[in-house]
Amino acid sequence: MGVSEGEAFLQAIFKRPEDVTARLVYADWLDEHDHPGGELIRLRQQLVRPDLPGTKRSTLAAREREVLAKCDRDWLVQLERADWKLRYIQVRPADEGAAQWAKRRKGLWSAPAQKAMSRALAAFEEEVGLPLPVSWKAFAHGCGPGYLCGDYIGIPRKGSGDVTRFQREWSGWRAATQAQIDERYPYMDADVRSWIRNSVRFGTGDNGDYLVWNTSRITDPVRAEYEVVLLYARGCDRLTTYESFEAMWNANVEQRRSDDGDEAKPFYPD
Q: What pLDDT shows up at residue 2?
């Protein structure tokens, strides 16, 4: 089966995520096909301007939310995977060449690997039984598994870091009786206790802690974003909380760059 014209545009944007012209040409094509994504792409091109006045930014951001609600989540993942590929390129450590850094993800970025990733994400989503964050799924396509400031972020793949294995182990633990949980975590925070059985685990903290989505707290229904919580492994109390997976990425990258300057290695691929 050949590639459709729309898929060809998305592939071209993913191949060269920094190419604004390719995005705007795609936006024109989407307009011609009555797809709300054309307006979304243009809005985002305006929102990244550093000189945009605050009032104008607020107006455009509000409109972006309205347009996002009209867009299919799977299409958003295919569009935003290019943004995550660009983020991966931009967090390259100063001591590693651009070619070598890109080579680490060459296999992931191939067309067959991207299709395989879509299938794996769909299977994981079916296993979990609820839609998972657009931001994390696009991250899986663009960055792959790795260490975000020491915390390991899993994606669906074969191997010890497979997020499916994380979740199956987590589900097995959550299936324990309440008495068993009380015995293991007698001082678990009451707030955590109220939602822990509905959580999804997708990573591991740098000290062996649990990185989970609190799926009972939907922070963004349009993008199926959930509150991200790093749980202390010994007590299951909160260590850190973020409004979304993307917010976790942004906060950690900004902090590591602020602390380490040119030597920063905020994300390192597995």
A: 61
